[in-house]
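User: Fold this; tokens only.

Assistant: Input:
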Amino acid sequence: MTYTLCALLGAALLGLDQWVKWWTSSRFAAPVPPHIYWTPDPAREFLPGLVELTRVHNYGAAWSSFSGQRWLLVGLTSLILLAVLYVLARRIVRHPLGVLAGCLILSGGLGNVIDRVRLGYVVDMFHLQFWPAYPVFNVADICVVCGAALAAVYYLRFYEKCDKKGGPHGDADAAAR
């Protein structure tokens, strides 16, 4: 049941990510040289004083690292997604927090891979007004960051008690029988 609910949430978030990227691309002009990253349209308030909407084409990863390395980023992200999918499919992680973390990472990573393969860049749109130097991000980035944070909490607080096999707390599989 946990896997099904988390998979449905992940699919909904992937759909939301793709819709928000489409909406942003249809409402803001595309970046043009010499500014190939930022739209020429002014940003629009989303949450006044907190978040504004804009359109940015990110040709790299976080903070534009690895910019221009499209296929390297697609390959590395795909390998990470396959590893997370393997862990979930083999039910190596069974605690609901760990499953949720994996599904968030999958939906966010897949959302950005779709953009990179289809467009050659990732469409970003959320800009924090109170932190101007912070990069512009999207729904997929939010999913990946939240999933990674939840994965860290899961690993530090629940992995050993719930999912570790043969650890100091016994065999999780034997306890489930």
